[in-house]
Amino acid sequence: MTQRQLVFKLRSAGPDGKENSYDDFDVAQFFVLLSQETGAGPVEPTPTRAPVAQDRGTGTIAGRVLDASGATVPRTRVILRDVTGREFETAADDDGVFEFLGVPPGDYSLDAQSPGFRPYSLKGVPVQASRVTTVEIQLEVGAVAETIDVRAEVPLLMTSSAQVSVAVEAAPLSTPRVREYSPETLLW
Fold it and tell me: How many domains does the chain have?
């Protein structure tokens, strides 16, 4: 798939008010898909959303989820974790676009999961107040997993020993039968 995009960046001159200096930063970034073409021919472009930082004192993480060929991966589960372990979760839309709005400033880790792809993890994603951090996630195709449940049972034969044994039934204990015509029986 071949895509032609136009990218608009809205930049701030920073606290010193001078353009192209060390403190300049991107306020927002806009992607416009001009054309898209597959092996079957051109595809009608779809509009993309522009990430915008919200609440004062918070930032935004926005991006797209792509596969190795550059095609979007829709409905990917994206998880954002801060250093304390607190989680924010979202899912990419049908165009592979995701965003986390109103994220407190700090460093985060970003994980992405989608069926048929290997899990993706990115650490050290910075979020600054009133700024948009753009992340492009590229998923790799994963192997199909198959689970086999094997259960063992006790064998009927003991194969670890070559002994022969015989089971013998014990006869019930009783007194021997007294002869009927013995002199002792006549006295009773």
Answer: 1
